[in-house]
Amino acid sequence: MHGTMMDTQLTVPTILERIRTQYAPREVVSLLVAGRDEAGNPIAHKHRTTYGQVADRARRLAGGLLGLGLQKGDRVATLAVNSFRHLEAYLGVPSAGLVLHTVNIRLHPEQIGWILNHAEDRVLLIENVFAAMIPTIKAACPRLEHILILGPTPQPIPLPGVHDYDTFVMGSEPLTRYPDLNEHDAAAMCYTSGTTGNPKGVIYTHRSTVLHSIVSAPKDALNVGERDSVLPIVPMFHVNAWGLPYTCALYGAKQVYAGVFSDGRTVATLLQDEAVTITAGVPTIWMGLLAELDRAAAAGEPYQLSGLERLVVGGSAAPESMIRAFQRHKLDMLQAWGMTETHPLGTASGVPVGVDPTSDEGFALRAKQGRPVPLIELGLIDEAGQPLPHDGQTMGRLIIRGPWVANAYFKGEGQSNFFEIDGQLWFDTGDIATLDDRGYMHIQDRAKDLIKSGGEWISSVDLENAIMAHPAVAQCAVIAMDHPKWDERPLAVVVPREGQSVTHAELVDFIAPKFARWWLPDATVMAESLPIGATGKFLKRELREQYRGHSAAQTESAPERQ
Amino acid sequence: MHGTMMDTQLTVPTILERIRTQYAPREVVSLLVAGRDEAGNPIAHKHRTTYGQVADRARRLAGGLLGLGLQKGDRVATLAVNSFRHLEAYLGVPSAGLVLHTVNIRLHPEQIGWILNHAEDRVLLIENVFAAMIPTIKAACPRLEHILILGPTPQPIPLPGVHDYDTFVMGSEPLTRYPDLNEHDAAAMCYTSGTTGNPKGVIYTHRSTVLHSIVSAPKDALNVGERDSVLPIVPMFHVNAWGLPYTCALYGAKQVYAGVFSDGRTVATLLQDEAVTITAGVPTIWMGLLAELDRAAAAGEPYQLSGLERLVVGGSAAPESMIRAFQRHKLDMLQAWGMTETHPLGTASGVPVGVDPTSDEGFALRAKQGRPVPLIELGLIDEAGQPLPHDGQTMGRLIIRGPWVANAYFKGEGQSNFFEIDGQLWFDTGDIATLDDRGYMHIQDRAKDLIKSGGEWISSVDLENAIMAHPAVAQCAVIAMDHPKWDERPLAVVVPREGQSVTHAELVDFIAPKFARWWLPDATVMAESLPIGATGKFLKRELREQYRGHSAAQTESAPERQ
Predict the structure, then answer these.
(1) Where does the AMP-binding enzyme C-terminal domain lie (chains A, B) (predicted)?
(2) B28: contact with A, CB 8 A cutoff
(3) Average pLDDT for residues A212-228, to the nearest whole number?
(4) Is residue A120's pLDDT more than 70?
(5) Fold for domain A451-554?
(6) Which of A100, A256, B188, B552 makes an SS bond possible with B100, Cβ 3.0 to 4.6 Å?
């Protein structure tokens, strides 16, 4: 419209141009694999580059891909770990008008092939450590025209269409004039983990990517600025590493990438040596870090992490006990929540004015998933689709809307998850949650993991978090087991800490003060480990299949009945 | 598009709904006028309310205005100071689909009438302290149907269509369902100060308002979050008080408003008593605050401002000496730059990693206007419209583009300020600036204030800032005087500090080490004060008219010649 504001489009080249023109000297640090030790474990090599170099190579990648004949909207897949090369693809692929399709490296090769075919990817960027998969992938994906290998390989792979990424990039002319892009054009895509049914594709647009990057930066979200050093442990192959590669580039923060390494010792050392101020990952990663920090402190050689201002945790609910444990190391953990379908940032769990973050009330609030970031709306509905009160008590299906929430899956699949209320489109998260009058959202469960006992709902997540606070418990999953009278009753599956043991009665006594009597698990079984899926979450479906027929009588101790 | 992201619109009701649903208990503090002392000066009364109350009243105002028959896009003017009532209008008027037109209270009543007529305002919200103007305005503006008086008046004003705002608001039903709004719809408007020609209207859209609010929040811009207490001294009647009312509401920061009060003592006391963390204003305000802080410190009764993290300065270039002076009080001043046409935030002058903000290099960078915030692009062109290098040396006309930059003035006026380069629309700021390879922009002058001496440009702003660092100088403006050989030569107009004096020779000696010899002013004249316009800037045009015929021979000391 004439006489108002410019209709400047929100597009990824804006981000690329900022690191090129404002932040060229800022560093990007990556742990690469330099070789293998005698046990076959990877040996780390620390690689340093700058935003200026990344920008140049991203523009060369963009130019090279268009030189291969790719057209606007074509998909370019990555099967890669966190590194500067993946960052180049994050910036270069969408800036060429192409769509960056990050594929989860933890999936089975057959699923990877299915996803590459479903997305109709024309080019694949594959990490050198996965190069052995190339023949299989080529055979399974006839549409795939080119494969670029990220990092050196012991010898060239003499297959048609297979290239060394660095050679390809440095042999290409940089793209200096970006294609005309509408902000609603696709920029990236990611498939849901697909624990039920086939994976579904979510398309991120240029607009959603830019808006998400800006909304992530303020202090009540992730607190990113130029003076920060950020280590996203959360993988770049899943939901854009929570958008951090884009947010950090937009604001000029140093980026640190751990590649294939995620053990406590490597992470702690990297946090210390690269003076990291902000890091982000799933609870299982932080469990490993916590053990290493405890070990080092007990050994009288604590890590120097005084500059580390914020550990962001998401992907699964963070137990309050973990937030408290990090506070004992003087480290602030901030819980955030989102999904593949929400880019992901939906909420962040800061503490409002007037509440001490290290008080009991503060920790309780921080154990919730938090309040919506700007432009995100949350709602609760019952099974008939009617709105439920935001009273902090009533559990309902959590629904969400906003400019970085999917309006449908790729190719229109899974339509039942999207629906209108009063002409406004909402996405059904599949989570069961409460909302309170300050806007705090607290996930109670995945709808499919809820335990339906005698017509009432029991939150498996609440029980797990309470049980995990017990000092003898390393991990815990609570699942439904069949029950002739109550339909379902809770069963706790517990992995004890090394060298420790605990009984069902002890656990029930421990958590009893926090719950109604009928919520308490009927039984506890001990396990050596819990199955973990491709995105780092417990695979409760597998546990349920394993223990569905379990009855309280089979367990070590007498069941409590409601 | 199907299978991508929701096309959720970026609109002002999003901001209103956040304070209503997330931040209802957060305070809004306003200094109102309780009466007059014997000398006729206003006496302050401190008013406290909450975001919950503001949201309720804003929705009532929206409902009431629609009840008057106003239609989408109709303009509602305000002639008001900073207060909670003005904030209600900021949120309520655009949420009703109407356009908030803030009018500069410092304009002459005739200009005010001209602007109200030009904008075709249907309703005016007027501060009670200006109620005496109502008959004049009504006579001049026949289109104006309703006038709402903000705050109590000694007696009712018995004119048709004149109402008490509070009565009107509390007698109206709240709007609970917002109209369908497109993000490109107009939300607010503001006229340029119009030092040349008629004022021109700039229309802010819902999209630009929301984007500007989000981009303002991160720490490399204004650093606003829920735990902040923000005092915008910058007036709400001009460029939306730099967007702070919206940014603070979106993020839940407490807002503090000083109303008609802007003297150093009132501001310092308010900063202290309301535990303000962020404040924003023009240099003249900070000069007054600085004098008060110096006075109080010298008297051994310093203000307690340890929580004050950031003084944002804009509107005119902040001299480095002022930034250093505040640092001596342990207060960080951040320079920002923008214009009515840019909403206003264009740049912020943070210091990059590796530079100590209190080193000489740090202060020098902070005295520049800074680097563009995300989504804003800057360029430099010569008089033929050709791009100039970003080398930190070359001066050129500063051009700007971005999603909160005007694409034209209201009713299509002033078209020569908008032009395309390679199909992209740019706005010519009328400023002369340099840009460097890190993105730092440094305003050298307004194009019309540049001194053109022998075909070369001399920056009046650089000279002023250097002269103002002299301890005997309170204020300084450097302007062009006619010269038979060089066309123009610089003349310094200086207001000495009370009880001090300084000569031309002393000033030239003081600044000579910083400038080429031919830049140095030929003459200095002393003045008791400098003329200040409606937006708080020196009126150089008036000074130039006054001194155009001045020659170096007339001054107290012998001229230096190039």
Answers:
(1) 463-537
(2) no
(3) 97
(4) yes
(5) GMP Synthetase; Chain A, domain 3 (3.30.300)
(6) B188
